[in-house]
Amino acid sequence: MPDTATMEAIVSLCKRRGFIFPASEIYGGLNGFWDYGPLGTALKNNVRDAWWHDMVDCPPDGPDGQPVSIVGLDSSIIQNPRVWEASGHVGGFNDPMVDCRESKARYRADHLGFLGRKGDTTGQFFAFVSGDDSSMSKARKKLEKYVKAKLSDDDLDFCGIESMTTARLAITVGPDAKEAGTLTEPRQFNLMFKTYVGALQDEDAAAYLRPETAQGIFLNFKNVCDTSRVRVPFGIAQIGKAFRNEVTPRNFIFRSREFEQMELEFFCHGDDAPKWYEFWCETRKNWWGTIGVKNDNLLLRSHDSDELAHYAKDGCGTFDVEYRFPFTAPGYGELEGVAHRSNYDLSQHAQHAGAKLEYFDQERNERYLPHVIEPSAGLSRGVLAVLCEAYTEDPDRPSGVYMKFHPRVAPIKAGIFPLVNKDGLPEIASAIHRELRGKYRLEYDPKQSIGKRYARMDEAGTPFCFTVDAGTLETGNLTVRHRDTLAQESVNKDQVGNFLEDQLG
Ligand code: ATP
Hints:
- There is one protein chain.
- The protein is of the alpha+beta class.
- It has three domains: 4-75 and 213-389, BirA Bifunctional Protein, domain 2; 94-189, no CATH class; 412-504, Anticodon-binding domain (Rossmann fold), CATH 3.40.50.
- Helices cover 30% and strands 25% of the residues.
- It has a seven-stranded mixed β-sheet. A five-stranded mixed β-sheet has the order 23-22-24-25-26, sandwiched between helices. A four-stranded mixed β-sheet has the order 8-6-7-9.
- The longest helix has 20 residues, at 38-57.
- The site of adenosine-5'-triphosphate (ATP) has 16 residues, from strand 13, strand 16, strand 19 and helix 11.
């Protein structure tokens, strides 16, 4: 069963400690939008910087043992609207959706589940939002009330939208409805946010907020080739906001309407694409381990043919790196997609824009449109995976919980505390803080009881706390507390920098 209690506790901790708040909260919020508080911003920036460091500044070794070549880019959120016609998003970026005429709620068709009594071909079906525990138990209660009997799991018939004929929908009660037959057939719904550029709000001025960062990379492929010393195979990486008017934003920041992506378009010769595809699937799955996401909670899953994106053609596949989120457990939810996009995007833009985007390969003496392998990760979803992974209950601690962040992404690397706010201790602690704060994000806090300060650092996921006490005045030694083991050891005040260097690199 999905772990609803853990998810609720994570959301509550995120709000209480300033990781993530609902956007426009004082106005009642806006569904699908979130704001990052001080700790959340630091955490998100650390995940973002780790990705950029490992993809662009210090990319991995490729299949031949040599570092791969990757450069960075930062393109506009709003582009010429013809971009989205060429990319297929205007025509194809649709989610089939089901409306409920009674409750006025709207659901993504592939996110609806249907519950009936096994063997009963004429009785009612009850719809629920899959992955939403309370919606499923509501549907089950409605079914039991309808058949006037308690049902065991074996008595239940579960199915998805593909099994729901028009006749069946007519005898189905929606997730938030009382009457049967109020759900519409699935209809297409364009997920792109529309806006207008300039003073006039007519169709000629219509434009879209980008639904993915990838297209900005394809648009600049030629610019990058012409201005930098890149040679195929190479990659262009970009991190930035993307916007999708999701039908059912849910599960905290897992599915929101404004989010961030970390995308790499890796350009290679078509013959080499299978080799690079395999390389990036493996490399990207392993990368999550470097920021503390355990391999046991990750899965590499190949898309079924009916799931393939609109750009996928014969012979092109997609692997998802999936994470076992509390709300999907024991199942998994997508964290990152690694797609073999062939030369679809470059050839679409070449055709629609009438531009020459072919690459001349001097080594092969051949002109061609490179094929593309695209590891496309969610930064916001990545932050959620990191939060879920770090959340650790411990009834023996005053906070009852601590966040076991990998030191690489921990928002605060160490706390520097005087045991009491007097007797010359604050001066020593603040001098250490001032000396090291340019190198590490540290928190200096002289107030409150030491227990309360430790508890706050546990919830913030701070790996180390240094405490200056009366003994420090005599020996120069202070105590360092390790967040995960609660072990305490003595370190000289002149060695704090070296200690952090050893632990954090
Ligand atoms: P899903 O099937 O969950 O809608 P997708 O397959 O449409 O996702 P992609 O287009 O492959 O997603 O986007 C790449 C990554 O961007 C995803 O793996 C995910 O991490 C992130 N992402 C996509 N949509 C959202 C969203 N609405 N909110 C947060 N992150 C998202």
